[in-house]
Design a protein that fits this description.
globular; Tyrosyl-Transfer RNA Synthetase; Rossmann fold; binds adenosine-5'-triphosphate; two-stranded parallel ribbon; 14 helices; binds magnesium ion; 5 strands; about 5% strand; mainly alpha; 2 domains
Length: about 325
């Protein structure tokens, strides 16, 4: 019997990118293979609809892309349960009960949600479901009694919210039904990969990403356009490393630390052009992406099999979530008959 339970998720709002890989996917594959965890991996289609309700086709299309990305990075459906959020009705009922334990003021204070509201230009029209998505996320985590949630740094406020709900629920209804989750974050400095444009976060909704499914040619085009040091105009000029996205990516994905240190010293002294550093980054990234591309190709030939994996995973997830829901109902006392 595994000692711990993991729940993690991604929103099907596009294909997954190298930020997801470093922020979360890589860790999931590692943990799945330790055998210490029962792992649930959710495609959060309902959460994706909170800011895409009028564009369901995008979510539908992205669902299969995210599933392919999972399988491509090495998530193994025999070891991890991959499932689809909307296929688990218990999550909605849990969300409704939890919403009554959270104040509107608390939801508005969530720093990640605040930043996302700015970014998404909702103006005065923030969908209520969007503001409340951290509560629905708490339902996702607690339905599986997950104690471990491997995620990127942007998810810390969500975990804090989930823990608050667990504590409030257990004290209000005087039963230890729900389990407090801990976040499992990537090593320092790798929690949030910046975008190609130098934006603080690579995001599939911001059009600033290198996708796991990008061809070598696409990766080349994107790297050549990447943001570096705007002051570094001539090759002989000294360049800056800090805030230089190309070097930030090298720090995260490179394996040859000596070579990276040499490149940095040369760049700072002057005489090293952006293109040379970018070519090296291209090599480094393709080394990471090649095996992922190969596995993806195999599954792309058999989408029926990918949907079957999702269906089976959703069945398993449903059984677990229904069990938690019945305990929650009993604790509140809405088990009348
Ligand atoms: P969206 O813009 O639709 O919200 P996203 O790119 O933020 O998409 P999510 O599906 O919201 O992706 O996030 C899935 C997981 O990936 C989360 O654990 C999140 O912390 C992590 N993650 C997302 N972007 C990055 C990034 N740039 N660096 C590291 N981790 C990331
Ligand atoms: Mg996000």
């Amino acid at each position: 019997m595994a000692k711990h339970t993991i729940l993690t998720a991604d929103r099907p709002t596009g294909k997954l990118h190298i930020g997801h890989y470093i922020g979360s996917l890589k860790n999931r594959v590692k943990l799945q293979n330790t055998g210490d965890y029962r792992t649930f991996i959710m495609i959060a289609d309902m959460q994706a609809l909170t800011d895409n309700a009028r564009n369901p086709e995008k979510i539908r299309r992205s669902l299969i892309e995210v599933a392919l990305d999972y399988l491509a990075v090495g998530i193994d459906p025999k070891k991890s349960t991959i499932f689809v959020q909307s296929q688990i009705p218990a999550l909605n009922e849990l969300t409704m009960y939890y919403l009554d334990l959270v104040t509107l003021a608390r939801l508005k204070r969530n720093p990640t949600v605040k930043a996302e509201i700015q970014q998404k230009n909702f103006g005065g029209s923030v969908p209520a479901g969007f503001l409340a998505y951290p509560v629905s996320q708490a339902a996702d985590i607690t339905a599986f009694k997950a104690d471990t949630v491997p995620v990127g740094d942007d998810q810390e406020p969500m975990l804090e919210q989930a823990r608050e709900i667990v504590r409030t629920f257990n004290t209000t209804y005087q039963r230890e039904v729900l389990v407090e989750p801990e976040g499992l974050f990537p090593p320092k400095g790798q929690g949030r990969l910046p975008g190609l444009d130098g934006n603080a976060k690579m995001s599939k909704s911001l059009n600033n990403a290198i996708y796991l499914s990008d061809s070598a040619d696409e990766v080349h085009q994107k790297i050549m356009k990447m943001y570096t040091d705007p002051q570094h105009v001539h090759v002989e000029d000294p360049g800056r490393i800090e805030g230089n996205t190309v070097f930030e990516y090298l720090d995260v994905f490179g394996t040859d630390q000596d070579q990276i240190a040499d490149l940095k010293a040369h760049y700072q002294a002057g005489g090293l052009g952006d293109v040379k550093v970018k070519r090296y980054l291209e090599e480094v990234l393709n080394e990471v992406l090649d095996p992922i591309r190969q596995r993806r190709q195999v599954y792309e030939q058999d989408l029926g099999e990918v949907y079957r994996i999702l269906q089976e995973g959703s069945q398993t997830a449903n059984e677990v979530a229904e069990q938690t829901l019945s305990e929650v109902r009993a604790a509140i006392g809405v088990n009348y008959f």
